[in-house]
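Preliminary data (for renewal application), glycinamide ribonucleotide complex.
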Amino acid sequence: MLRIAVLVSGGGSNLQAILDAIDSGKLDSVMVELVISSNREAYALKRAENRGIPTMVIDGRDWPGPRERDGRLLEVLDELNPDLIVLAGYMKILPKSIVGRFPRRIINIHPSLIPKFCGEGFYGMRVHRAVLESGEQVSGATVHYVDEGVDTGEILLQEQVPVLREDTPESLAARVLETEHRILPEVLSKLSREIK
Ligand code: GAR
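Predicted structure:
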């Protein structure tokens, strides 16, 4: 069984895709042990609670600064010692202290074709706005290992989607999300066969 911790910040549709894949038997050797949110209002927390999965909030607003917040996150992850940490719409950059502790044990999903439209400042809807402004004809989603850079780790899986002339950031985001919901469980399935 691949024991995973999922880190979230918002809607949690990628978390939902993982949970649905587990329920449908497509990810039968993956177990979500804990969902950690950087935002106490995240709907992702509700999704986890609905499935009876333990949740934890480590919200920067409850800590004097990012160092203390990340210190707590490291403590929790150290204690849980999951096989894999999945950043599924996690909007904070993990510090070196955490990345260094879990080499090749943290993966992230990003809503663009890395190395395009990634790195600091490129997250969520900002990515899709930038893609549309640039006039690109394709975008997509990428699952990659997390290393000490921002969105620079080894790519595990990437899939393209077309950018349509009539796209808005929202319509492009929805098309990319559909792809995310397919490729994230696919990577987890592959890793669950390799790691355990
Ligand atoms: C997803 O599109 C994910 O790729 C993106 O945020 C969205 C979260 O959606 N992540 C990043 O931009 C990280 N750099 P969700 O909360 O519904 O899964």
